[in-house]
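hi! just following up on the protien thing from before. the input was this:
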Amino acid sequence: MADPTLLTTAAARALGLTRGQLRGPRYLRLAHGLVVRLDDAIDEVDRLRLLATALPTGTAYSHATAAGLLGAPVDLPGRPHVVLTPRRVLPQHAGLVVHRRQIGRDDVVRHRGLLLTAGPQTFLDLAAELPPDELVAVGDALWRRGHLDRRRLAERLARADRVRGVVRARACAPLLSPLADSRPESLVRYWLAVSDLPDPVPQLPVTDQRGRVVAHGDLGYPEWKVLLEYEGRHHAEAEQFRRDIDRYSLMGASGWLVLRFAARHGADAVVDRTRRALWSRGWRPAAG
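and the predicted 3d structure came back as:
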């Protein structure tokens, strides 16, 4: 792709470009009053790189924009979120959501050629916007991809007194795990963790009579030999379906009771069915 040319709307009009031309395929509107001339199509990351060249030095993408770029299970918002340290006048663009934050050197990272809020800062920012189960899913994904860990998150939350969302962030932080493979697995684990049931073990190995690992369950209770599996869309594919049949057969042959859940199963269904399965295997709630 040839180097794009960044123009303000006023500069483009001064060059004789009409409104119709600026809305054509050779031009992309980055934000209010800002367009870029292109020779080829660009993806969302390229668009954010171009937009960053028109923002004040030190501006970092944040919130859902940073989370999506770091690999968390959130959609990139149509209006990118950016964060700036407090200043007398914040830049205002109709195409941006601008946040004022006091951020330190460790609160930002360079990733995919963009300056973003780091994993712990992104987790803290989203704690003010997401429900707890979705926040845990974001935290799990950030940890799994190496963008935060328990120590770094604890350090950031320790200096976040009176920051909006910090109470939720601190409540959810102990529930995070890098072992969750997907957002649904994180949601299911959260629903069980905040219920009266025992905490499940993620990515639980299943062994045969010889002690060989023959499968792994998404979540499980080794003491009562109950496994929970989440069935995403990819499980409907022929090859994956065949692998699943083998896994479930091996689990059953080793004495495991396997519960299978899908997107239509919410928190109530997951907790109720897991409780009944554990009860059938001898679990009882602690007295008192």
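DSSP finds eleven helices and twelve strands in the chain.
The CA atoms of residues 205 and 211 lie 10 Å apart.
cheers
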